[in-house]
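Entry 14. Ran structure prediction on the chain below.
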Amino acid sequence: MSAESDVEVLRREGRIVVVGASLAGLRAAETLRDMGFTGSLTMIGDEPYEPYDRPPLSKQVLLGRARAEDTALPRRRGIDAEWRLGVAAESLDRDAKQVRLANDDTVAYDRLLITTGTRARPWFYPEQEALGGVFVLRTRHDAARLYRKLAAGPSRVLVIGAGFTGSEVASACRERGLEVTVVERGPTPLVGALGGVVGEVAARLQRDRGVDLRCGTSVTALEGDETGRLRRAHLSDGSAVDVDVAVTALGAIRNTEWLAGSGVAAGPRGIACDAGCRAFDVNGIVTDDIYAAGDVARSPHPLFDYQFLALEHWGNAVEQAEIAAHNMICAAPDRSPHLWLPTFWSVQFGVNIKSVGVPTMGDQLVISQGTLAEKGFVAVYGYRGRVIAAAFFDRAMWLGFYRERIERGAPFPPDYPLVDRRTEALQPIDPALPDPHLPTHQPTVTLTGHSPSERRVEFVPSRA
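Output, structure tokens:
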């Protein structure tokens, strides 16, 4: 049978399983049906809900402007799928082409798409995490619980970690009029994503809005009272803070544990896949029947030295899911590459923050519009003499301009006349990005090297 005939049979009567009832999973399913796939489609999700939107959870939901249950993603079309919700995938048998679920059911596939995303990194000490008043924010359930607690008017909220999620939670708390202490072990908020130079501006935003921001500090212990309710946090500088609520915003963990022993190249950094979203096995050989998309995937990008990128971006999840769905049901010559340029946004303390490209790859920085002393500016990141990224504080109108320069490898420092003559940093400076190996909150874009496998192989020379 020809490859074309195989594809037609797959399109007509194949079995496609999507593990991860997420944004990426839903958009992939819709794309499959749009492309004429008429076979069986099974959607597996560990939460009891159909796919919902996560960005509003740390913004509108915490502010009471939307209910957690009203964040369901809009449907672009019907997908005629079997939904297996509230039960997690537990293992993968590649030989039998089956996914085993936590309830011991098995689901067979001809093509498998993995969109399991990430989960919130928990607090380090389970007995402290179990205290009443300790929260994470990742799921719809998390947001609903935290909203109810904030609405009750706690005397002080502690946010552990000043990445984007932690900063957005702190912003929502201040908007509600709550007292907030933010503890960040790095030198500034957002340092892992945008570097210390831009992070100093984020620090000023927080302090100007009344946040008790403590950088270069960590929480050593959470203390409860005799009823098991949170009452105090102890810090590494020897001080203590009385708090009713603690939100641990320590970054994300990619949901790959269920793939252990499957032979898929999956680990803490995600699932390695090629530019067409096909997963690699542990030997670096690309599979033809297993695909990955969204936060859990990492794939090479030619603009960034072909390093594998792991992206926690809404737009990337949509774009990658559509590419994966297309490639799953087409012949090899018709496959498309996933070459999404990372784009991220956040709203905190009255400022709209966006970035494009990979700031964490930058080795130099210039401020091309506005000034760091103001709320509005554009920071351009360079890498080995070319523009690699840009960050925008209330200057989103420049995003398209810099996207185009990143895509064509424009020289750095920028060689065009500056539009805003108030610019203060015309000469390149160090962006003050932290060592990526240091334990701090995770960036939203992670460079994970060139190897598709996370195995450590020991080579033993043969003896003559």
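The two ends are 47 Å apart (CA to CA). Will compare against last week's run tomorrow.
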